[in-house]
Amino acid sequence: MSLASSPAILRDCPAPAKLNLFLHVNGRRDDGYHLLQTAFQLIDWSDTLHFERRDDGRIVRANAIEGVPEASDLTVRAARALQQATGSRWGVRIEIDKVLPMGGGIGGGSSDAATTLLALNRLWELHLPRETLMQIGLSLGADVPVFIFGDNAFAEGVGERLTRVELPESWFVVIHPRQHVPTATIFADQRLTRNTPVSIVTDFAACTNKFAFGRNDLEAVATAKFGEVARALEWLRQYSPHARMTGSGACVFARYEDEQAAQQVLERLPPEWDGRCARSLARHPLAAFA
Predict the structure, then answer these.
(1) Which CATH number fits domain 171-279: 3.40.50.150, 3.30.70.890, 3.40.640.10, 3.40.50.1820?
(2) Which CATH number fits domain 2-164: 3.40.1030.10, 2.30.30.140, 3.30.230.10, 3.30.70.1130?
């Protein structure tokens, strides 16, 4: 990340991916939102965003992203939400180096939105507290607040109630089976388990192997609907019995204690899938912002 010579330009802002170490659906609110519990692990696989402040109030996306119209881009929506919440007269030009797969369950769009809010809070000299940015982020998506929160976290509610958790340094094999899984499709499925008993954060904190805690309740639906997700998960479980899906899919992952062990698995990856060896992050790269 670099602040250019002009205070109106902020370049190389990372938007890291996340993994859901477990994901339980505990119920459903009257408004249709699901009540969840999960543990978020940040990893060093990131999109990169660049921002240039404008004095005409316009929000402009500098580059096209396939399949994402500018009006529905979460970075553009985040900038507009921040404008509306603060009455700021500033605008911004946003450029996105997009590498995280969409529909992968790793929070790429949500992370982009969070990085946008953190960066513009600085570029627009708003000085909003992190808690306010998290509230704005929640209006954009349930995963946005954790990226603003800045730490690995145990999450409850619809994802907005966050408690910092310590997680051991790890390496992960993350596989994207080149399949797009729409989150809404998974949550709308009648087969989805919606009554997993509530855990407490101390249950997770006390667990000796936090990477074997609980399960992902969305996994059974996603693997039934999307065959490549099921095949990728079955393949990865040959090398780690605790491999699981993250979010609503499509990515699946397994944890290893060192890079060499992870790379050895990645070298065996079938060519029809994309894979990545990713390292855990103790904190978000922009944790000092705001």
Answers:
(1) 3.30.70.890
(2) 3.30.230.10
Residues tagged active-site: 18, 143
Exposed, middle or buried: residue 96 (CB in 10 Å: 0-12, 13-18, 19+)?
buried
Give me 227's structure tokens. 């065959």
For 131-188, write each residue's pLDDT tens digit.
999 999 999 999 999 999 999 999 999 988 999 999 999 999 999 999 999 999 999 9
3-class DSSP assignment, residue 248? coil
Tokens at 138, concatenated: 């929640």
Give 49: exposed, middle or buried? Use CB within 10 Å, 0-12, 13-18, 19+: buried
Q: What's the pTM?
A: 0.96
